[in-house]
């Protein structure tokens, strides 16, 4: 599953996302240039992931 994201601007952001969310949601890949976040999510995990991602100060613009 891929998401277009906002406020993810540097490797510190990527590392924060990975440290905070990978234990619960599995491997997360972030393309800083395109601002696209990729991970394997079940449909029933999307809302929880979105909330936790936003709690870190980042924003999901759209699901791709």
UniProtKB/TrEMBL annotation:
Gene Ontology MF term list: metal ion binding
Highest taxon, organism lineage: Bacteria
Protein name as annotated: Heavy metal transport/detoxification protein
Species: Campylobacter jejuni
Record lineage: Bacteria, Pseudomonadati, Campylobacterota, Epsilonproteobacteria, Campylobacterales
């Amino acid at each position: 599953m891929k998401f277009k994201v906002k406020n993810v601007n540097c490797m510190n952001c990527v590392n924060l996302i990975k440290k905070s969310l990978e234990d619960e949601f599995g491997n997360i890949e972030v393309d800083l240039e395109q601002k696209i976040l990729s991970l394997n999510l079940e449909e029933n995990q999307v809302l929880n992931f979105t909330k936790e991602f936003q709690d870190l100060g980042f924003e999901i613009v759209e699901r791709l």
